[in-house]
Amino acid sequence: TPQEAVRTPRRTTVSPAEFAPFVDACEPTEASDTEASDIGLLLDVVLNLTVELGRRRMTVRDVLNLAPGSVVELEKLAGEPVDIFVNNTAIAKGEVVVVDEKFGVRITEIISPARRVTSAA
Fold this sequence. Notes:
Number of helices: 4
Helix content: 10-25%
Largest sheet: 4 strands, antiparallel
CATH architecture of the domain at 47-121: Roll
CATH superfamily of the domain at 47-121: SpoA-like
Structural class: alpha+beta
Strand order of the largest sheet: 1-2-3-4
Number of strands: 4
CATH class of the domain at 47-121: Mainly Beta
Strand content: 15-25%
């Protein structure tokens, strides 16, 4: 009916929003107990660490011709530092060592966070 189509405008109240002040991320702050426990949660997160000895580009034909005993030459020279990745992001360089008959890697350089961001982009 025509009377139902006409509606009375509702009155709404508009007021300014209030926010907590922002803290400059560059300014040092004291960690609260909550922040310390939040960081503690991250300490048990599992990450994938990969040590890359070297790389090699090969044709499909060369890959198909690989057999037991085949030797694949890598682009990296023997004794050259190896690259260390965490979740596919380069974080360090190191040298291959043997520890109790197992391979290991000794960290020789930590890649700066700024360089990590640049190389990831």
